[in-house]
Write a structure and sequence with these properties.
- It is found in: Nucleus.
- One of its GO terms (cellular component) is nucleus.
- This is Mini-chromosome maintenance complex-binding protein.
- With 288 residues, the protein is an alpha/beta fold.
- The chain has two domains: 198 residues, P-loop containing nucleotide triphosphate hydrolases (Rossmann fold); 81 residues, no CATH class.
- The protein is built from ten helices and eleven strands.
- The protein has a five-stranded parallel β-sheet. Strands 1-2 form a two-stranded antiparallel sheet.
- A hairpin with a 2-residue loop joins β1 and β2.
- The longest helix has 31 residues.
Protein backbone atom coordinates (compact mmCIF):
# COMPACT_ATOMS: atom_id res chain seq x y z
CA UNK A 1 0.00 0.00 0.00
CA UNK A 2 2.96 2.31 -0.68
CA UNK A 3 3.80 2.74 2.99
CA UNK A 4 0.22 3.17 4.23
CA UNK A 5 -0.30 0.69 7.11
CA UNK A 6 -3.91 1.74 7.70
CA UNK A 7 -4.80 0.70 4.15
CA UNK A 8 -3.07 -2.62 4.79
CA UNK A 9 -5.18 -3.24 7.91
CA UNK A 10 -8.41 -2.56 6.04
CA UNK A 11 -7.43 -4.73 3.08
CA UNK A 12 -6.85 -7.64 5.48
CA UNK A 13 -10.37 -7.16 6.84
CA UNK A 14 -11.71 -7.05 3.31
CA UNK A 15 -9.91 -10.27 2.33
CA UNK A 16 -11.18 -12.31 5.28
CA UNK A 17 -14.75 -10.99 5.17
CA UNK A 18 -17.32 -13.67 4.37
CA UNK A 19 -21.08 -14.08 4.78
CA UNK A 20 -21.78 -16.02 7.97
CA UNK A 21 -25.42 -15.16 8.59
CA UNK A 22 -28.53 -14.15 6.64
CA UNK A 23 -31.36 -12.70 8.70
CA UNK A 24 -34.31 -11.59 6.60
CA UNK A 25 -32.94 -8.67 4.56
CA UNK A 26 -29.74 -8.37 6.61
CA UNK A 27 -26.56 -10.12 5.47
CA UNK A 28 -23.73 -10.28 7.98
CA UNK A 29 -20.02 -10.81 7.45
CA UNK A 30 -19.08 -9.36 4.08
CA UNK A 31 -17.01 -6.15 4.04
CA UNK A 32 -17.03 -4.20 0.77
CA UNK A 33 -14.15 -1.72 0.83
CA UNK A 34 -13.55 1.41 -1.24
CA UNK A 35 -9.97 2.59 -1.42
CA UNK A 36 -10.11 6.12 -2.78
CA UNK A 37 -7.35 8.66 -3.34
CA UNK A 38 -5.79 6.73 -6.21
CA UNK A 39 -4.55 9.67 -8.23
CA UNK A 40 -3.88 9.70 -11.99
CA UNK A 41 -0.16 9.46 -11.16
CA UNK A 42 -0.71 6.14 -9.34
CA UNK A 43 -3.09 4.88 -12.02
CA UNK A 44 -0.61 5.66 -14.79
CA UNK A 45 2.06 3.78 -12.83
CA UNK A 46 -0.21 0.71 -12.83
CA UNK A 47 -1.08 0.68 -9.13
CA UNK A 48 -4.55 -0.86 -9.55
CA UNK A 49 -3.44 -3.71 -11.80
CA UNK A 50 -0.33 -4.47 -9.73
CA UNK A 51 -2.40 -4.54 -6.54
CA UNK A 52 -4.85 -6.96 -8.12
CA UNK A 53 -2.06 -9.20 -9.44
CA UNK A 54 -0.71 -9.40 -5.90
CA UNK A 55 -4.07 -10.16 -4.27
CA UNK A 56 -4.81 -12.69 -7.00
CA UNK A 57 -1.88 -14.76 -5.73
CA UNK A 58 -3.27 -14.77 -2.19
CA UNK A 59 -6.92 -15.67 -2.81
CA UNK A 60 -8.65 -18.81 -4.06
CA UNK A 61 -10.94 -17.01 -6.53
CA UNK A 62 -10.61 -13.49 -7.89
CA UNK A 63 -11.79 -11.35 -10.77
CA UNK A 64 -10.72 -7.92 -12.01
CA UNK A 65 -13.26 -5.57 -13.59
CA UNK A 66 -12.17 -2.37 -15.26
CA UNK A 67 -15.18 -0.08 -14.90
CA UNK A 68 -14.92 1.69 -18.22
CA UNK A 69 -18.07 3.15 -19.71
CA UNK A 70 -17.92 0.60 -22.52
CA UNK A 71 -17.60 -2.34 -20.13
CA UNK A 72 -20.51 -1.16 -17.99
CA UNK A 73 -22.70 -0.71 -21.06
CA UNK A 74 -21.81 -3.92 -22.90
CA UNK A 75 -20.80 -6.67 -20.45
CA UNK A 76 -23.50 -9.09 -19.31
CA UNK A 77 -23.50 -8.76 -15.52
CA UNK A 78 -26.30 -11.17 -14.57
CA UNK A 79 -27.16 -14.63 -15.96
CA UNK A 80 -29.94 -14.65 -18.58
CA UNK A 81 -32.06 -17.51 -19.87
CA UNK A 82 -31.88 -18.01 -23.65
CA UNK A 83 -35.13 -19.77 -24.50
CA UNK A 84 -34.14 -20.37 -28.13
CA UNK A 85 -31.28 -22.64 -27.00
CA UNK A 86 -32.88 -23.46 -23.64
CA UNK A 87 -29.66 -22.51 -21.86
CA UNK A 88 -28.78 -20.14 -19.06
CA UNK A 89 -26.10 -17.73 -20.28
CA UNK A 90 -23.66 -16.86 -17.54
CA UNK A 91 -23.10 -13.33 -16.23
CA UNK A 92 -20.11 -11.61 -14.65
CA UNK A 93 -21.67 -11.61 -11.18
CA UNK A 94 -22.21 -15.39 -11.27
CA UNK A 95 -19.08 -15.95 -9.20
CA UNK A 96 -18.01 -18.73 -6.80
CA UNK A 97 -18.30 -18.14 -3.05
CA UNK A 98 -15.55 -16.07 -1.43
CA UNK A 99 -14.47 -14.58 -4.75
CA UNK A 100 -12.51 -11.33 -4.49
CA UNK A 101 -14.03 -8.91 -7.01
CA UNK A 102 -11.69 -5.96 -7.62
CA UNK A 103 -13.38 -3.10 -9.48
CA UNK A 104 -11.26 -0.31 -10.93
CA UNK A 105 -13.20 2.96 -11.13
CA UNK A 106 -10.08 4.90 -12.09
CA UNK A 107 -10.57 3.52 -15.61
CA UNK A 108 -13.85 5.42 -15.97
CA UNK A 109 -13.75 7.89 -18.86
CA UNK A 110 -16.23 10.53 -20.06
CA UNK A 111 -19.25 8.95 -21.72
CA UNK A 112 -22.93 8.25 -21.29
CA UNK A 113 -24.24 5.21 -19.49
CA UNK A 114 -27.00 3.52 -21.43
CA UNK A 115 -30.04 1.81 -19.93
CA UNK A 116 -28.19 -1.52 -19.86
CA UNK A 117 -25.25 0.13 -18.11
CA UNK A 118 -27.42 1.71 -15.42
CA UNK A 119 -29.11 -1.63 -14.83
CA UNK A 120 -25.71 -3.30 -14.54
CA UNK A 121 -24.61 -0.83 -11.86
CA UNK A 122 -27.88 -1.47 -10.04
CA UNK A 123 -27.16 -5.21 -10.08
CA UNK A 124 -23.65 -4.65 -8.70
CA UNK A 125 -25.15 -2.52 -5.94
CA UNK A 126 -27.62 -5.30 -5.11
CA UNK A 127 -24.76 -7.76 -4.70
CA UNK A 128 -22.75 -5.36 -2.53
CA UNK A 129 -25.69 -4.44 -0.27
CA UNK A 130 -27.64 -7.68 -0.10
CA UNK A 131 -25.28 -10.36 -1.45
CA UNK A 132 -27.90 -11.44 -3.97
CA UNK A 133 -27.63 -11.75 -7.75
CA UNK A 134 -30.75 -11.64 -9.89
CA UNK A 135 -31.00 -14.30 -12.59
CA UNK A 136 -33.00 -13.04 -15.57
CA UNK A 137 -35.53 -15.57 -16.88
CA UNK A 138 -37.06 -12.93 -19.17
CA UNK A 139 -40.56 -13.17 -17.70
CA UNK A 140 -39.34 -12.99 -14.12
CA UNK A 141 -36.14 -12.71 -12.07
CA UNK A 142 -34.93 -15.04 -9.33
CA UNK A 143 -32.50 -13.85 -6.66
CA UNK A 144 -29.65 -16.20 -5.83
CA UNK A 145 -27.42 -15.84 -2.77
CA UNK A 146 -23.84 -14.72 -3.35
CA UNK A 147 -20.76 -14.38 -1.16
CA UNK A 148 -18.48 -11.90 -2.90
CA UNK A 149 -15.76 -9.75 -1.37
CA UNK A 150 -15.66 -6.42 -3.21
CA UNK A 151 -12.65 -4.11 -3.32
CA UNK A 152 -13.37 -0.87 -5.18
CA UNK A 153 -10.45 1.28 -6.30
CA UNK A 154 -11.22 4.89 -7.16
CA UNK A 155 -9.90 8.44 -7.23
CA UNK A 156 -12.84 10.02 -5.39
CA UNK A 157 -15.53 8.32 -3.35
CA UNK A 158 -16.95 5.33 -5.24
CA UNK A 159 -20.32 5.54 -6.95
CA UNK A 160 -20.98 1.98 -5.74
CA UNK A 161 -22.32 1.13 -2.24
CA UNK A 162 -19.73 -0.16 0.23
CA UNK A 163 -19.20 -0.62 3.94
CA UNK A 164 -16.48 1.99 4.18
CA UNK A 165 -14.26 4.37 2.26
CA UNK A 166 -10.56 4.58 3.03
CA UNK A 167 -8.55 7.44 1.56
CA UNK A 168 -5.13 6.12 0.54
CA UNK A 169 -2.21 8.11 1.94
CA UNK A 170 0.92 6.83 0.17
CA UNK A 171 4.29 7.68 1.64
CA UNK A 172 5.87 7.45 -1.80
CA UNK A 173 4.81 6.98 -5.42
CA UNK A 174 7.37 4.46 -6.66
CA UNK A 175 4.79 1.82 -7.54
CA UNK A 176 7.10 -0.46 -9.52
CA UNK A 177 9.72 -0.63 -6.76
CA UNK A 178 7.12 -1.29 -4.06
CA UNK A 179 5.54 -4.25 -5.81
CA UNK A 180 8.89 -5.62 -6.97
CA UNK A 181 9.96 -5.73 -3.32
CA UNK A 182 6.75 -7.49 -2.29
CA UNK A 183 7.16 -10.08 -5.04
CA UNK A 184 10.74 -10.75 -3.95
CA UNK A 185 9.42 -11.72 -0.50
CA UNK A 186 6.66 -14.01 -1.77
CA UNK A 187 8.50 -17.31 -1.94
CA UNK A 188 6.37 -20.50 -2.04
CA UNK A 189 6.51 -20.92 1.75
CA UNK A 190 5.35 -17.34 2.39
CA UNK A 191 2.53 -17.66 -0.14
CA UNK A 192 1.32 -20.89 1.45
CA UNK A 193 1.33 -19.31 4.90
CA UNK A 194 -0.64 -16.24 3.79
CA UNK A 195 -3.18 -18.35 1.89
CA UNK A 196 -3.71 -20.58 4.94
CA UNK A 197 -4.11 -17.47 7.12
CA UNK A 198 -6.86 -16.00 4.91
CA UNK A 199 -8.72 -19.30 4.55
CA UNK A 200 -8.51 -20.12 8.27
CA UNK A 201 -9.65 -16.64 9.30
CA UNK A 202 -12.82 -16.98 7.22
CA UNK A 203 -13.68 -20.23 9.02
CA UNK A 204 -12.92 -19.00 12.54
CA UNK A 205 -15.55 -19.67 15.19
CA UNK A 206 -16.16 -16.16 16.52
CA UNK A 207 -18.40 -15.35 19.47
CA UNK A 208 -19.57 -12.25 21.29
CA UNK A 209 -19.85 -12.96 25.02
CA UNK A 210 -22.86 -11.85 27.04
CA UNK A 211 -20.68 -9.54 29.13
CA UNK A 212 -19.23 -7.90 26.02
CA UNK A 213 -22.69 -7.50 24.51
CA UNK A 214 -23.85 -5.62 27.62
CA UNK A 215 -20.75 -3.40 27.63
CA UNK A 216 -21.18 -2.55 23.96
CA UNK A 217 -24.88 -1.83 24.44
CA UNK A 218 -24.11 0.57 27.30
CA UNK A 219 -21.41 2.25 25.22
CA UNK A 220 -23.82 2.68 22.32
CA UNK A 221 -26.46 4.26 24.56
CA UNK A 222 -23.88 6.68 26.02
CA UNK A 223 -22.59 7.59 22.58
CA UNK A 224 -26.14 8.25 21.37
CA UNK A 225 -26.77 10.52 24.35
CA UNK A 226 -23.70 12.56 23.45
CA UNK A 227 -24.43 12.79 19.72
CA UNK A 228 -27.08 10.96 17.73
CA UNK A 229 -25.52 12.12 14.48
CA UNK A 230 -22.05 10.72 15.14
CA UNK A 231 -23.26 7.35 16.40
CA UNK A 232 -26.16 6.02 14.37
CA UNK A 233 -27.35 2.40 14.52
CA UNK A 234 -25.86 1.92 11.04
CA UNK A 235 -22.50 3.30 12.20
CA UNK A 236 -22.50 1.04 15.24
CA UNK A 237 -23.31 -1.98 13.09
CA UNK A 238 -20.37 -1.14 10.79
CA UNK A 239 -18.08 -0.97 13.82
CA UNK A 240 -19.30 -4.38 15.03
CA UNK A 241 -18.60 -5.92 11.61
CA UNK A 242 -15.12 -4.40 11.56
CA UNK A 243 -14.50 -5.50 15.15
CA UNK A 244 -15.32 -9.10 14.25
CA UNK A 245 -12.87 -9.01 11.35
CA UNK A 246 -10.13 -7.32 13.39
CA UNK A 247 -10.56 -9.88 16.17
CA UNK A 248 -10.43 -12.81 13.77
CA UNK A 249 -7.42 -11.33 11.97
CA UNK A 250 -5.62 -11.32 15.33
CA UNK A 251 -6.55 -14.93 16.03
CA UNK A 252 -9.13 -14.04 18.70
CA UNK A 253 -12.30 -16.12 18.93
CA UNK A 254 -14.05 -13.55 21.11
CA UNK A 255 -14.22 -9.78 21.00
CA UNK A 256 -12.09 -8.26 23.75
CA UNK A 257 -11.94 -4.68 24.98
CA UNK A 258 -8.43 -4.44 23.57
CA UNK A 259 -9.58 -5.39 20.08
CA UNK A 260 -12.65 -3.13 20.36
CA UNK A 261 -10.44 -0.14 21.25
CA UNK A 262 -8.11 -0.96 18.35
CA UNK A 263 -11.10 -1.13 16.02
CA UNK A 264 -12.35 2.30 17.12
CA UNK A 265 -8.87 3.74 16.61
CA UNK A 266 -8.79 2.37 13.07
CA UNK A 267 -12.20 3.85 12.33
CA UNK A 268 -11.24 7.23 13.83
CA UNK A 269 -8.11 7.40 11.67
CA UNK A 270 -10.16 6.50 8.61
CA UNK A 271 -12.76 9.17 9.32
CA UNK A 272 -10.05 11.77 10.04
CA UNK A 273 -8.70 11.26 6.54
CA UNK A 274 -12.13 11.77 4.99
CA UNK A 275 -12.71 14.92 7.06
CA UNK A 276 -9.29 16.29 6.11
CA UNK A 277 -10.01 15.64 2.43
CA UNK A 278 -13.40 17.37 2.72
CA UNK A 279 -11.81 20.41 4.38
CA UNK A 280 -9.21 20.53 1.64
CA UNK A 281 -11.91 20.34 -1.03
CA UNK A 282 -13.89 23.16 0.58
CA UNK A 283 -10.77 25.31 0.88
CA UNK A 284 -10.01 24.75 -2.79
CA UNK A 285 -13.56 25.66 -3.76
CA UNK A 286 -13.44 28.87 -1.70
CA UNK A 287 -10.09 29.73 -3.26
CA UNK A 288 -11.54 29.33 -6.73
Amino acid sequence: CLGDPLAGDYIISNLIGTVYSRQDLHVLGQYPLNISGITPVLSTAGFTTKLYQLLQQLTTHSHFLSLTTENINTITFIPKKDYSSNELQSGLLQLPGNTLLVMDETAMEPGQLQTEGLQNLEQVGNVLRNQKCKYDFQFHKIEMDTNINALILSEGRSMLPNECELVLCPQHHDVAAAFDRVQSLLNPEALTTIRKYISTARLYDYQLSQQMQEELQNEFVEARQESKDSMTPEKFHELLVLARLVAVSCGEQELTQCVWRSCKILDTKRMDRIKALNRQSRATTVGI
